Amino acid sequence: MLRTPPYLPSFQFHEAHELTCAGNPQQLLQAILTQNLRQDPLIGFFMALRERVPGIFLRRKPPHNTAAAPSPFGLDNFTRLETTPTHMTLGLVGRFWRPTFGLYPIADLSAFKAFNTPGVAKLILTFEVGPTPKHTVKLATQTWVHCPDTATRFKMQLYWALIRPASGLIRRRILALAAKQARTTRPL
């Protein structure tokens, strides 16, 4: 069920998580997209920590004017690259190790494929739903990161080492929240 994305020439970083649950594939994928991730206490905590800690180390004060503050990072920062009834691929391009993630806007799959800037990483996040033998489904997520050069790979490696435990927890929570939401939603 888990497959390598065709949109990256290669990848240097990867993580995968899955759970077995009841639910309709379309409902589960829709639940992932419609979740307010920050309402989950653990996800909210780790996301707020990720957004605030770099500023502390760089001795930057948070803006007093909330209009000047960047909007919180979430799944809406990703570009939907591909969607099928059982699979969703999201893309993100940026310098993720920077305090503001250093994101580059990507309009669509063509723009994602064409993007090739030294110093900027490309990330693919997938969610996939597949059947299991016991009348349940397997809900899975994978993340791949491609770094175009050695300097980018080094920066990403340091960042990955710091965020990976929290990132894995966030991914597992996203799956669990989607499964819970799909259980409480009427069938499509």
Describe the SSE topology.
Blueprint: E1 13-21, H1 25-34, H2 41-57, E2 79-84, E3 87-94, H3 109-114, E4 121-131, E5 137-146, H4 150-184
Antiparallel strand pairs: 1-5, 2-3, 3-4, 4-5
DSSP strand tally: 5
Please trace the helix and strand order, writing H or E for each element: EHHEEHEEH
How large is the share of residues in beta strands?
15-25%
C-alpha Rg (nearest Å): 17 Å
Q: Distance N terminus to C terminus?
A: 23 Å
Strand order, sheet with most strands: 1-5-4-3-2
Mean pLDDT: 85
Number of helices: 4
What oligomeric state is this? Answer: single chain
The biggest sheet, with number of strands, parallel, antiparallel or mixed sense and barrel status, is: 5 strands, antiparallel
Described by the principal axes of the CA atoms, the overall outline is globular
Poorly predicted tracts of residues: 65-69
Structural class: alpha+beta
Estimate percent helicity: 25-40%
Give a verbal description of the structure.
Mean pLDDT is about 85; it is low at about 65-70. This protein has helices at about 25-35, 40-55, 110-115, 150-185, and strands at about 15-20, 80-85, 85-95, 120-130, 135-145. The longest helix has about 35 residues, at about 150-185. The chain is of the alpha+beta class and about 190 residues long. It has a five-stranded antiparallel sheet with strand order 1-5-4-3-2. The two termini are about 25 Å apart. β2 (about 80-85) and β3 (about 85-95) form a beta hairpin.
